[in-house]
Amino acid sequence: MTKARSSLISIDATPYYHCVSRCVRRSFLCGYDSDSQQSYEHRRGWIEKRLLALADAFCIDVCAYAIMSNHYHVVLHINVDRAKSLSERAVVERWLAFHRGPALIQRFLQGDTLSEAEIERCSEIIEEWRERLTSISWFMRLLNQHIAAKANKEDKCTGHFWEGRFKSQALLDEKALAAAMAYVDLNPVRAAIADTPETSDHTSVKARIESLKNEDITPPHLFPFAGNPRENMSEGLPFRLMDYLELVDWTGRQCREGKRGHIDGREPDILKRLGFASAEWLEAYARVEKGSLIGTELSMRAALGSLGRKRLCGYRIVCN
């Protein structure tokens, strides 16, 4: 049975979510279709460009993404504080980057004299848009509708392009966030279409590695790494970038070489900080996408009220 979005996404439960959209048709989202001998590889660029453009306008940060042949993954962070800090004009400009606004809003932008009733109505519209700028549903809608329209036009057909609604999974703690991000970034390696994270095209991990090579702090429109939140109060992901890259590289070697029963002697220090034994980390990493919640049992129980649920359902991470 389809669950209401209110039971899947709640900022009171967590600001982090792993989302997946899959194609409904046999036609490829991206990649090469050997049956029709047609390449759809250029569509990866469509998705990546639209995803990052939406991240620039919305108060939703992209933590990780991977664009595959018939689906894509993205880990998102809802940035409510940023939305609250925006001026009314900034909200309007961000929303109108992807929509046509009503005449009243156009007059507001132009600085026309408005009546009290018009000012009140403007404020109502703008506050609604402010809320939408933190909505994952609106974010994913504008991403998927745009890609579906372009793909249908290219394929000269009509009808559904996506497999219904996108799937969302609440990431309730740091352990769940790390597992989901690594899972997303290593999708091409797991699918044997890339040998290493740095050669995984159209992924956030490759973008971050290339940014490091260029001596940039972070790639444009990707949520930066802030380090250990107990030591650093700046906004960003609660890991150190180099720790995370080491974790992704280590996990990718286990996954690619099929050595789940054999663990390298040198494990990344980040596993200890997250409270994982190596085998438990690989189990959590492999079980991402199981259920609509992922986190420790303690995190799950704390989130039930915010999500309007009574029972634990999802993947429970076991850790030290």
Structure characterization notes:
The structure is a single chain. Strand 2 (32-33) and strand 3 form a beta hairpin. The protein is α/β, with parallel strands linked by helices and 320 residues long. It is globular, with a radius of gyration of 21 Å. Strands 4-5-1-6-7-8 form a six-stranded mixed β-sheet, sandwiched between helices. A two-stranded antiparallel sheet has the order 2-3. The protein has helices spanning 42-57, 80-85, 88-95, 103-110, 116-132, 136-155, 174-185, 187-190, 204-213, 241-257, 269-274, 278-286, 297-303; strands spanning 16-22, 32-33, 38-39, 60-67, 71-78, 167-171, 293-296, 315-317. It starts with 15 loop residues before the first strand and ends with a strand.
| DSSP helical segment count | 13
Structural class: alpha/beta
What is the residue-averaged pLDDT? 86
Which stretches of 5+ consecutive residues score pLDDT under 50?
A: 259-263
* H/E element sequence: EEEHEEHHHHHEHHHHHHEHE
Number of DSSP-assigned strands? 8
Helix content: 40-55%
**Shape label:** globular
Strand order of the largest sheet: 4-5-1-6-7-8
**What separation lies between the terminal Cα atoms?**
34 Å
Share of residues in strands: 5-15%
Task: Give a quick rundown of the structure.
Helices cover 44% and strands 12% of the residues. The protein is α/β, with parallel strands linked by helices and 320 residues long. The chain is globular, with a radius of gyration of 21 Å.
